TrEMBL record:
Reaction catalysed by this enzyme: chloride(in) = chloride(out)
Protein name: pH-sensitive chloride channel 2
One GO CC term, this protein: plasma membrane
Phylogenetic classification of the source organism: Eukaryota, Metazoa, Ecdysozoa, Arthropoda, Hexapoda
Family that this chain belongs to: Belongs to the ligand-gated ion channel (TC 1.A.9) family.
Record domain Neurotransmitter-gated ion-channel transmembrane: where: 272-499
Predominant subcellular localization, coarse grouping: membrane
Ranges that cross the membrane: 271-290, 329-352, 485-503
GO molecular function: extracellular ligand-gated monoatomic ion channel activity; transmembrane signaling receptor activity
Species of the source: Parnassius apollo
């Protein structure tokens, strides 16, 4: 036995004798049971004598006479962590909490030197002083146990008390879901003193391994990335009623924090990969003919409804927050691609049903889209080009012949005959009248830049004229072919930007 332990035991005996004398003097009828020959008593009998109310008051701090700070050392053993659904913003924890402090009033080395330890459960807890701690972020908690609560208290000969209890608690965890489902969440368990401020009671983590994880701990939706502990002092006052009684002051607090990373395998297999396949299915319409309205509309609407149903099943598990989440960005992007495929069909179907041949300066995207979207402007440019290429031509007028409704020409009314009258300068004195079909006129204006006519004396336009024509059906097919390449490239670009944002930012 060391000198420090001996002095502690002597001091505890003095305190016990002093308290016993005080209580006996105040109440002569109260006689404290003797502690002599303590080894002859059973554990229950000896503890009832040691913690008798004549010499021990469980409502007072162990150092109430000296005024020293009571140091309570804490440690935890985590059995189970169950992060709840994101919309609940909490997690469930099963753990063993151990508190260790020294109560000199319970030192019994001088009375029962052969007794190495006193061990009891809830009945012993009712006899001695125990620090009152609470979890500030607690939603609900309870002691675990079947027939009786899992509480264990051991008292060492020098008065060191080890209090263990097995608990389950549901604690709030304020999650940030901006990167859901690629997010990392940081949750904590906050232990604070309920009654005594930091000048009287100080909470401290054990020096070696204050928090230990069970080797059988397994998480389903998350993986445990890291955990750490820290000690702090919190401010309590009457306004926020943080501590018991609403008393102001600084209160000691302990914090155990762990970082969880969400497993994305479930979301990849059940949400992202199926949504990619649905978007790719919407591109099948580009391989169908532009006038196949029924199959293209059915395919477009079914892919849109399928994707909305898939996304809504994921949204049900999330809280309604004011900021946009990463999953919602993916939803908006995929919805935009599916909707764009529907718009593309409406566009090419409208072009397909046109009957007029489109005149083009060049066969490229710029002039095709320009002539398709603004056909009147394209015709004006054609007329302007013709006038610039034939400066001696002052006026040209065309009159269509009657449409033959019984014509078997599959091209329809676009192939009509026209009568063209050209007025030349008065110096020539002779007007020239030529008859030609509309197709001959267009063919003469395109390609080689020559106009096919019925007069040998007609002037040929300059060679630089390169106008050509495309039927509406050719333009619709041309747009579909370009969409087969453009849409997948844009979707791949969207994926590159999205996954870079998710994993790199």
């Amino acid at each position: 036995m060391t000198t420090k332990t001996l002095l502690t035991n002597v001091l505890s005996v003095f305190i016990v004798c002093y308290v016993s004398g005080q209580k006996t003097s105040q109440n002569p009828a109260l006689v404290c049971p003797s502690l002599d020959n303590g080894d002859s008593y059973t554990q229950s009998e000896f503890m009832s004598r040691l913690a008798n109310e004549c010499r021990y008051d469980r409502l007072l701090l162990p150092t109430y006479q000296t005024g020293e700070v009571v140091y309570v050392h804490a440690s935890a053993y985590i059995y189970f962590i169950q992060p709840a659904e994101a919309h609940d913003l909490n997690f469930k924890l099963h753990f063993l909490l151990q508190l260790r402090w020294t109560d000199a009033r319970l030192a019994y080395a001088l009375y029962s030197p052969e007794r190495t330890k006193i061990i009891g459960e809830n009945d012993l807890r009712q006899r001695i002083w125990v620090p009152h701690l609470y979890m500030s972020n607690e939603q609900s908690s309870s002691l675990m146990g079947t027939d009786s609560k899992d509480v264990l208290i051991s008292v060492a000969p020098d008065g060191e008390v080890l209090f263990s209890r097995r608990m389950q608690a549901v604690l709030y965890c304020w999650m940030n879901l901006q990167k859901f489902p690629f997010d990392d969440q940081t949750c904590s368990m906050n232990l604070e003193s309920w009654k005594y401020n930091a000048s009287i009671l100080r909470l401290m983590w054990e020096r070696d391994n204050p928090v230990r994880m069970s080797s059988e701990l397994h998480l389903t939706e998350y993986s445990l990335l890291d955990y750490w502990t820290n000690e702090s002092v919190v401010r309590g006052d009457i306004v926020d009623m943080r501590q018991g009684g609403g008393r102001s002051g600084n209160y000691s607090a302990l914090k155990f924090t762990f970082k969880l990373g969400r497993e994305v395998g479930y979301y990849l297999m059940d949400y992202f990969i199926p949504s990619m396949m649905i978007v790719a299915m919407s591109w099948v319409t580009f391989w169908l003919q532009a006038d196949a309205s029924a199959p293209r509309i059915t395919l477009g609407t079914s892919t849109m409804l399928s994707f909305i149903t898939l996304a809504s099943s994921q949204a049900k598990t999330l809280p309604k927050v004011s900021y946009i989440k990463a999953s919602e960005i993916w939803f908006l992007g995929c919805t935009g691609f599916i909707f764009s495929a529907l718009v593309e069909f409406a566009f090419v179907n409208t072009i397909w049903r046109r009957k007029k041949v489109v005149s083009l300066k060049k066969v490229n995207s710029k002039y095709i889209l320009k002539s398709t979207l603004t056909p009147r402007l394209a015709r004006k440019e054609l007329q302007k080009e013709l006038k610039e290429s034939s400066p001696h031509l002052s006026k040209s007028r065309s009159c269509s012949s009657l449409h033959q409704e019984t014509s078997s020409d599959p091209a329809g009314p676009g192939y009509n005959n026209y009568l063209t009258v050209h007025s030349f300068p008065s110096a020539l004195n002779l007007p020239t009248i030529t008859t030609q079909s509309y197709d001959e006129l267009i063919a003469g204006q395109g390609g080689n830049g020559q106009r096919s006519g019925g007069s040998e004396g007609s002037d040929e336009p300059p060679k630089h004229h390169t106008w050509t024509t495309m039927t509406p059906q050719e333009i619709a097919t041309w747009i579909d072919k370009r969409s087969r390449i453009l849409f997948p490239l844009l979707f791949v670009s969207f994926n590159i930007v999205y996954w870079t944002f998710v994993y790199c930012l």
